[in-house]
Write a structure and sequence with these properties.
Elements: E1 8-9, E2 23-27, H1 31-42, E3 46-50, H2 58-63, E4 67-69, H3 71-77, E5 80-83, H4 90-97, E6 106-109, H5 113-116, E7 127-133, H6 137-145, E8 152-158, H7 164-174, H8 177-180, E9 182-184, H9 187-202, H10 205-219, H11 224-233, H12 235-253, H13 256-269, H14 272-286, H15 289-299, H16 303-313, H17 316-327
Parallel strand pairs: 2-3, 2-5, 3-4, 5-6, 6-7, 8-9
Antiparallel strand pairs: 1-9, 7-8
Length: about 350
């Protein structure tokens, strides 16, 4: 894959009128689903929320004034079907709704996993697109309500109608992404970079680094509380600075001592050996090794996932963190986001 300069789209590039006579089915009412459905509804789009009859989210969606149907019935009535149930559930949901998709309809995703790894193989007469906000759903909703936007990604996998990109951009405008900017990508690029980023940095790398730092301090006689503050709690301060102004802004905001220590010691820790390990992770994403492993793990009932998750929850840093968080009054800005169902 070669580097390229992606196209970025804004409000002026989108024609929301393309959704004026269309019905959008949002399948799922979890983190992204509730935000997409409510934002589209506020934008004047005809929205149906598709949820199984036993879903605990049905009452929540109906309470917001949204029309709720089963996924099959929602897809039957819709021109655009937004697949916002968990990745592991999507193939079964697609099999259930497949016959309800008519030529020229759009099947839309917020992540490319199932298309890229061929877990869903859509019929050739429908559009297949992606609009992926780069933010948790509660922030997509909050930003929209504050007349602000959330950056997003746009990809077209299949253009049967000749208007796939235009319809996807209209959808992006409807949920507020074009207010901030929508970056053009591909299903392959989004999927592979997303999985690698989660594993090597955001979810895997950072948590492993935090725990290793915590363990190093505690094993050398420092208090659990000091180790927690220095290796976990202050991570938010550093990440916030980088989020707001980049790495350079972070260096400008910390002490000269911290900056010098980071500049001279960071590469000692994250050395060529770590980069080599990152290359291995990326190769496993690119060649499908990780995808096959994760699919097999789900088919087996998630034994390794359950064991590893429980072990992580039992780590000492979790115990001391819970104790410390209970002692301090965090500001409202640091309060946990509103709880939203994670699936359905």
């Amino acid at each position: 894959m070669t580097n390229h300069e992606p196209q970025i789209y804004y409000d002026d590039d989108a024609d929301e009128e393309l959704l004026a006579n269309k019905t959008v089915a949002v399948l799922g009412y979890g983190s992204q689903g509730h935000a997409h459905a409510l934002n589209l509804d506020d934008s004047g789009v005809d929205v149906i929320v598709g949820l199984r009859e036993s879903s605990s989210s049905r009452d929540a969606a109906a309470a917001e004034g949204l029309r709720v149907e089963t996924p099959v019935e929602a897809a039957r009535q819709a021109d655009i079907v937004s697949m916002l149930v968990p990745d592991t559930v999507q193939p079964a949901v697609y099999d259930a709704i497949r016959d309800e998709l008519e030529p020229g309809d759009t099947l839309q995703f917020a992540h490319g996993f199932n298309i890229h790894y061929n877990q869903i193989q859509p019929d050739e007469d429908i559009d297949v697109t992606m609009i992926a906000p780069k933010s948790p759903g509660h922030l997509v909703r909050r930003n929209f309500e504050n007349d602000e936007g959330t950056p997003g990604l746009l990809a077209v996998y299949q253009d049967a109608s000749g208007e796939a990109e235009e319809k996807a951009l209209a959808y992006a405008a409807g949920i507020g992404c074009t207010r901030a900017g929508v970056v053009e990508t591909s299903f392959q690029e989004e999927t592979e970079s997303d999985l690698f980023g989660e594993q090597a940095v955001l979810c895997g790398g950072i948590t492993a680094l935090i725990k290793a730092g915590y363990e190093t301090l505690v094993e050398n006689g420092y208090s659990r509380e000091m180790a927690y503050f220095e290796c976990l709690n202050e991570m938010k301060l550093i990440v916030d600075l980088m989020y707001e102004g980049g790495i350079g802004e972070m260096w400008d905001s910390v002490s000269d001592t911290a900056e010098y220590g980071g500049l001279t010691r960071g590469d000692v820790l994250i050395d060529d050996h770590v980069r080599e390990n990152m290359e291995v992770l990326l190769e496993e994403v690119q060649d499908g090794t990780f995808a096959r492993e994760w699919i097999a793990e789900n088919q087996a009932g998630r034994p390794s996932y359950t064991r590893l998750r429980q072990a992580d929850k039992s780590h000492d840093i979790e115990e001391v963190g819970e104790e410390l968080r209970g002692l301090f009054a965090w500001s409202e800005d640091e309060a946990e986001p509103p709880e939203v169902p994670a699936d359905d």
